[in-house]
Amino acid sequence: MKNNACIGVIIPAAGSGSRMGGVYKPLEKLCGKPMLFYSLDTFQNCSEVEFVVISAREDKVIELTHLCQEYGYSKVKKIVVGGSNRQQSVKNAFECGLFDNENITHVAIHDAARPLFSSEMAKNVFAMAVEKTNAVCASRVRDTVKRTNDENVVSGGIDRDNLWLIQTPQVFEKNMYKNALDKAEKEGFVATDDSSLVAQNGVNVNLCETPSQNIKITYPEDVLLAEAIIEKRG
After folding, report:
1. SS3 64
2. What would the mean pLDDT of 199-208 be, rounded to a whole number?
């Protein structure tokens, strides 16, 4: 990685957790440790990362601030209130510390509920982003994929050779990401992930192959799988 490359990380953590029964997922325990802390450990120990901003639910900002201080996450510089959707939460974090920080060359956006992201994965995706201006973690689709009609009757198959499951972090040159955010806001475009914002702005997005175990905790059964992986890692 180039010596002058410096990563600012945004962690959107303002979701409702409705598919997990309404729990606040970032502080849900995995093997006795809050889910969010696994990602914070990775970024805290990553030399390329200088600055972390978390966008949280308003009622969790003070609690998260105290916990990050208590557990020594010194790279967490700000915890801001999230927006009405993920895109707005990321924008709030970006504008509250990262864009005006002249040291930051790239922005990485990472799901708070994706705790199994590792230092090795960070090294790979950051290096690709610096070399190619952007990089998005993703894993190849392994299962057979079918297309159906509205009645769930199979109407055809899909070649999975070029199909990928998109993950995070997603890493972009800072100005590239700002331009994508600005255009999306101007046009009223709302995306489910940040690579879609950038692609909407005419940029070719690069995928960095990442293990499928970099899962997002969405349903209660995902907790069991994540804890099994954590225990296996020791």
Report:
1. helix
2. 96
